[in-house]
Each structure stands twice: as C-alpha cells, then as structure tokens.
Amino acid sequence: MNVIEKPWKTIRRHQIKSCEVGAIMICIDILNQEELENLAKRLGKLVGAGDILCMTGDLGAGKTTFTQAFASGLEVEEYVTSPTFTLIQEYDGRLPLYHFDVYRINHVSEMEDIGYEEYFYGEGVCVIEWASLIEEVLPKDRLWMEIKVTGVESRRICFDFTNEYYEGMIKELLAI
To answer: pTM for this one?
Structure first.
C-alpha cells in the first residue's frame, strides 16, 4: 500500500492533511466539542438522499455527539440517542435519518434481520457507528469517517471517500 503524504496547510484554524491510500483521505484537527458539533451540523446540511456516512473511532471519541449535531443539520428536532441495544433509530428531518450503532452486533448476518438494504438504498441518510464491523455488507459508495482522540477535548477527524461526489462534499464542507 503506497501512502503519499502532502504538506500540511492551515485552513480556518484547522489542519488538513491529504494522503493517497487508493483514494484521498482528508484529516482535520478539532480543538473542542463546539468545533466538532459545528462541523457535523454543516455536514448534515450538505448530505442528500441515499448518502451513507460510516464512522469508526474508540469508545468515547464522539461518534454519537457528532451524529446528534449532524441530525441538527438535517433539521431533526427529536433528541438523538445511541441505538446501541436496538441497532437502529429512525428520525424525521428534511430527509429521514437512519442512525445505526452496530457495536454490539455478533455477526454481520444480524443486519439482515433489520432489513438493512431498505435503509442503505432508501431515500434517507444512513449514519453507521462502528461501521467496520459490517463492512462486507456496506454499499461500495460511502463516506468513511474516523474520529481519533488527540486530547481531552481535541479530536482528529479523517474523511475517506469512495467517489468524486463524497470528495466534493468534504471539500465543500472544509472550504478547500
């Protein structure tokens, strides 16, 4: 696997790093929860029907916090909670939000029990926490996001995308 690192450049107080690993990865350093929530809300305003956001990161990294703010960007009025024990929660907004948390999934076949294809290929937006656990059933085209803890409040968020559509979305999000 070839990794080509390009120079760091500062954009609006954030550090952006591009790498090639089969595709471009863009990483941004977030200083606190407010910046995390602002970023998530802006992304929620950019997504469209059928979009899939796959999230990974350690426990407590901020995946659910990100999803809550993302839902606000989708104009979801209901309080968003982690569906850890139900696998999925549905919310109404400008587009339906399908929030998956597959942390407790024992086998990827459990996704069939909830009819995952109706969500993945439907008219809403899917946010999937712990997406790497079900990677084999995920659609080919998706936006991948990893949240890494870098300090008490700081995080590094790395976006990896599978097509030009998601690349354009992230570049618009970060104004690059």
So the answer is: 0.85
